[in-house]
Each structure stands twice: as structure tokens, then as C-alpha cells.
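Changelog-linked ticket: thymidine-5'-diphosphate example.
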Amino acid sequence: MKLFVTGGAGFIGSNFVRYWLKHHPEDHVVNYDLLTYAGNLENLAEIENNPHYTFIKGDIRDPEAVREAMRGANVVVHFAAESHVDRSITDPSGFVTTNVVGTQVLLDAAREHEVQRFHHVSTDEVFGSLELGSEEKFTPHTPYDPRSPYSASKAGSDHLVRAYGETFGLPWTITNCSNNYGPYHFPEKLIPLAITNILEGKSVPVYGDGLNVRDWLYVEDHCRAIEAVLHHGEEEHTYLVGGMSEDISNLDLVKMILELMGADESLITYVKDRPGHDRRYAVDWSTTQADLGWEPSVTLEEGLQQTIDWYREHEDWWRRVKSGSYQDYYTKQYGNE
Ligand code: NAD
Ligand code: TYD
């Protein structure tokens, strides 16, 4: 099988590419990625010489390049996106062009090449915000109610995927997953920022009152969920993927990280809240469990411990990301083309 993976140099995409080649060494993976600030080929250094792996630098908004690169693919797994809510508040335009237009360009190419499956990786944020303290959770039937430019652009891409299924018969599946964490997570997101700041003896910024709630999913569990959907998922189905059964506030999460790292709570610093900050996300992943036999394999504490261990052992990686020097890797490895 030949997989065309978009955004495979990012956090989740690179975990997925490594996971896939480890568990399906007979398959071929094409990683199509523009290498924005979020793309880091160092994440894939251990497989870059694998003959079953090809990297193509390209933009999902470029129809010609996408059409050419997707040739021969059986399955598309679409991760590429602008993904950071805070950046979508500073400058929404790239979110609309990459997440909406880019997805439409990929869908057109997938139609033309008659791929067997277009799998779209989306987010629970398309469902909006839940009441703090309520028992309510997102299900595959929750109405869309995106509230940030990021989640609105992801919602647009989800609708396009389903529309191409209805209108053109394109075979699709979607996963809406919660907040991922784990190795190779870009350290501007809460968990890797907290871990690396603690390792550097710096404070950990907590937005607002710190009571916002997220569902946390260990990235390898997410990769296993996509694998289960590709192998056993029903076409034209949406699967919710989450990692938790109980709520945890950002503040309690940060306290847990501090405790696991043997650091002091005095490192917590409250900072100005994010505009339109969604209060609570909670994912009901029981139908995914029932339909596919998938469930998270680690508790939050176990996943955090593994993540902390990984950041302790990969100081060079996160220091290069924090300093920006990781962006030299492409030129060193591939020259200036
Ligand atoms: P990321 O920001 O780490 O990586 C995105 C990747 O896409 C990068 O390698 C970047 O270079 C590439 N890219 C961006 N614009 C591109 C373009 N125009 N053409 C080609 N490549 C481009 O993102 P991530 O955290 O790995 O998220 C992957 C997917 O999962 C995204 O679609 C995101 O919406 C979704 N998601 C992420 C989370 C999470 O917690 N990180 C949660 C739910 C859903
Ligand atoms: P983030 O990792 O940016 O993911 P998302 O906004 O997609 O959920 O943020 C996770 C939560 O942590 C979110 O409620 C915002 C909060 N947060 C902080 O409190 N401090 C920080 O420095 C960051 C980056 C996020």
C-alpha cells in the first residue's frame, strides 16, 4: 500500500510516519510537507534513508504539485494544517488558505487519482466549548460550533471532506481528536512548553484562572486510532478520539507535571487569558471503542512520565527548536532546492 501523508514533518504527522513504517514495513509512505515553522525533518531522521519512505517538500495549496506528488497513492492521510490557536488569533489568514483551500486542493487530487480512502485528521475544537463542571461530552453527533479562527477553518475542512463524499462519491473517514501530547511536540504548546521551561528553571505560564479543561491524548494512542480507522473504519464515518475519562484543569495538569519533575509550584505564573478561550473540551470516545476495539493505552500520568523522560533525553532536539536552528536541517540534508 502507498500512503500519501500530508504534514508528516509536524508533531503528530511525524509520530504517525514513524509508527506506520515500524508496524507496516512493507508499505510505502510519501510525506508531503511545506516545512513551515512547525515542520521539522529532524523528527524523521531515523527513517530518512528507509527505501519505503519519500519526502517531498510542497504546499497543499499548490494543485499542480499536489497532483504530481499524489500519483500512485492508495490512501491519503491528511495532517497538514496551521494548528496553533494562539497563532490563529494573531493572524487568521494562513489558517483559511492552508486548512480550507489546501484541503479542497487535496480532495480534488484524491478524486482525480481515485484514491481508496481520504482520511482527514481533525480536532474536537470544531464542536465549540462545553460548560465547566458539566457532565456533557462531545459525540460524533454534536453540532459544530467553532469559536476560534483555527477551529472554524478546521470545521470548514471537515465539511468539505463530507461534501466531496456526498457529491463526488469520494471515500472518506474523519477522526476528531483531542489535545495530543508526547515526543516531538513543538514547545510552544502547553505540555512541552511547561516541561522544557521547568528543565530550564523558567516559570510556566498559565492562561487566565487556569481552570480551562482539555482532554489529553498520548500521540501514539492517536496513531493507533488512525491505524484502526484505516484498517477497520467504515467509509463516510467520523470517529472521536480522546485520552481521558475525567476532567483535569490546566492548572492541575501543570501541577502534575511539576510534581512528576520534582519542581516547585512557585514556578506557576498566571498570565493574560486568551481571547475567546474555550472553557472545556471533553470527548466521548466510547463509539470508537465499541466499533473498532480501540482505547487509550496509557493513563495521563503514564503518558506524561514518558513525555518528560523523552524531553530529558532529547535536550538537543528541543533546544534547537527553541533557538530556531532546527530550520537549518533541511538545507543541510537536502541542499537549497
Ligand atoms: P503541526 O503544526 O505540528 O504540524 C503541521 C505540519 O503541516 C507541519 O509539518 C507543517 O510544515 C505542515 N504544513 C503546514 N502548512 C502546510 C501547507 N500549506 N502545505 C504542506 N504542509 C503544510 O500540527 P500537529 O499538531 O501535528 O497537527 C496535525 C493535525 O492534527 C492538524 O490537522 C491539526 O489540526 C490536527 N489536530 C492536532 C491536535 C494537537 O493536539 N496537536 C489536536 C487535534 C487535531
Ligand atoms: P494549547 O497547547 O495551545 O492547545 P489548544 O489551545 O489547542 O487547546 O493549549 C492548551 C491549553 O493550555 C489551553 O486551554 C490554553 C492553555 N495554555 C496555557 O495556559 N498556557 C500556555 O502557555 C499555553 C501555550 C496554553
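Closing comment: Example verified and attached. The chain has a mean pLDDT of 96. The chain has one domain: 2-334.
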